[in-house]
Specification:
By secondary structure, this protein is mostly helical. Helix content is 91%, strand content 0%. Helix 1 packs antiparallel against helix 2 (52-90).
């Protein structure tokens, strides 16, 4: 009965971990979309001279960013706590016979937690960098408008200043496009990563249930590593021979 209770406790922990991982995956996708749309919306409002609407929209996006950051950090903290409980369970007396399988499962959940943590901090850093750059450019545009309204004369200095501002806008737009492409690529890779992890999880489950399949997978991996070493050796020897031939 104690073994059954322990098994149920482990399965409950795994269920909690999977649920938190799914929630984090959805939150991170939404967080990435928010970061992508932030720069686009700011760029679309640059031609608007009204001060109230941009401030309201920027404030709304900033509040969404802060709220989602807190929610994701809370989910990461909960998933970390569940992983710690799983680690404690692996050290419980009576689980020695299952320790290898338990440690394998625990390591997989730890890797997922590490990936999500890294992705969150990277996306958050990109968002803060975009917001800082947008605030700086907004300050420059405000200074230009103040200068134009104060002077009232389109002299040579003003023309050069406006040309420089136009160059800054073009560079900023190019950077926004690059960041949007990078965000879209990252989102696609995140989706593919989830699919690959699901496939890997199924393969590992089959390997744990059927030792013969596990041995076959190990042999395939061993042969792949051996072929890689042989190929690397051949390429290295050929490279050395080509260098010797070139210098002689």
């Amino acid at each position: 009965m104690a073994g059954i209770g322990s098994s149920n406790y482990w399965e409950d922990l795994r269920k909690q971990a999977r649920q938190l991982e799914n929630e984090l995956d959805l939150k991170l996708v939404s967080f990435s979309k928010l970061c992508t749309s932030y720069s686009s919306s700011r760029d679309g409002r640059r031609g608007d001279t009204s001060d109230t609407t941009p401030l309201l929209n920027n404030s709304t996006q900033d509040r969404m960013f802060d709220t989602m950051s807190v929610e994701i950090e809370q989910l990461l903290a909960k998933l970390t706590a569940v992983n710690d409980k799983m680690a404690e369970y692996t050290n419980t007396p009576g689980t020695a016979s299952l320790n290898a399988a338990l440690m394998h499962t625990l390591q997989r959940h730890r890797d997922i937690l590490q990936d999500y943590t890294h992705e969150f901090h990277k996306t958050k850093g990109n968002f803060l960098a975009i917001r800082e750059r947008e605030d700086l450019l907004g300050s420059v545009r405000k200074d230009i408008e103040t200068y134009k309204s104060g002077s009232g004369v389109n002299n040579r200095r003003t023309e050069l200043f406006l040309k420089e501002h136009e160059h800054l806008r073009n560079s900023d737009r190019l950077m926004d496009d690059t960041i949007s492409i990078a965000m879209a690529t990252k989102e696609n890779m995140t989706s593919q990563r989830g699919l690959l992890k699901s496939i890997q999880s199924r393969v590992n489950t089959l390997a744990n249930r059927f030792p013969t399949i596990n041995n076959l997978i190990q042999r395939i991996n061993l042969r792949k590593r051996r072929d890689s070493l042989i190929l690397g050796t051949v390429i290295g020897v050929c490279t050395i021979l080509l260098l010797l031939y070139a210098f002689h």
